[in-house]
Amino acid sequence: MRVLVVEDERLLADAVATGLRREAMAVDVVYDGAAALERVGVNDYDVVVLDRDLPLVHGDDVCREIIRLGLPTRVLMLTASGDVSDRVEGLELGADDYLPKPFAFSELTARVRALGRRSTAPLPPVLERAGIRLDPNRREVFRDGRQVQLAPKEFAVLEVLMRSEGSVVSAEQLLEKAWDENTDPFTNVVRVTVMTLRRKLGEPPVIVTVPGSGYRI
Questions:
Q1: Among residues 155, 162, 198, which one has the least CA distance to residue 178?
Q2: Using CA atoms, how far apart are residues 2 and 7, in angstroms rounded to an integer?
């Protein structure tokens, strides 16, 4: 899942990004509304965590533009105000969810994951294919009943492949969904991660390389 965090309180923004990355999400961070509009015009995000009171371009206007563009991106709006009227107003702008500050990080993570599921075709909360069972909420993976310990990027790559339901996923798509914008697009990090993932999942191999196209399960 790829997430954009838009928050002008830099310490909070960076803390949220770090926490979501530990949950195997690819996260970009910006600190004002103008930068947010630039990013959503270039990258495909599953979820935007959007502070409402932003400099340069207000969060309300960022939300309106996402809706106007018809993007499948889901918006989780943040605000320092917990008033019901503010929550209603944010939702009426087109936001998909609303979370007042201060918030528990576990709740933020759960809401981001829920919105991420809504940005794609409906799938069961626990993914199963080719003897693999992947639970995104618990961050658990089992292969034929054996638990497999994965690093965050390995988990993210496997989740993207599982959600493709047998379709081929290109290296570029994996890079876009599992890594943030600071990753060198010419790096071999995808190939190396897939190799490590195959080794950890064990025999027989379940990740198939489709020459010139990508990977599938």
A1: 155
A2: 16
Taking Cα atoms as reference points, which of 134, 132, 136 lies closest to residue 25?
A: 136
3 state DSSP class of 90: helix
Note whether 26 and 113 are within 8 A (CB): no
Predicted TM-score (pTM) of the model is: 0.69
Query: pLDDT, tens digit, for every residue of 174-204?
Result: 988 888 877 776 678 999 999 999 999 999 9
Phi-psi region of 130 (alpha: psi -120 to 50; beta: other; left: phi over 0): left
Q: Which residues pair with 77 in a beta bridge?
A: 50, 98
Q: Which two tokens stand for residue 135?
A: 């639970």
CB half-sphere exposure, 145, CA atoms < 13 A: 0
Rounded distance between C-alpha atoms, residue 153 and residue 54, angstroms: 31
Give Cα separations from 135 to 86, 105, 126, 145, 153 (angstroms).
Answer: 34, 19, 5, 13, 15
Q: Are strands 2-6 and 47-51 parallel, antiparallel or unpaired?
A: parallel
Can you tell me the distance from the alpha carbon of 64 to that of 47, in angstroms, rounded to the nearest whole number? Answer: 15
Both tokens of residue 29? 């961070």
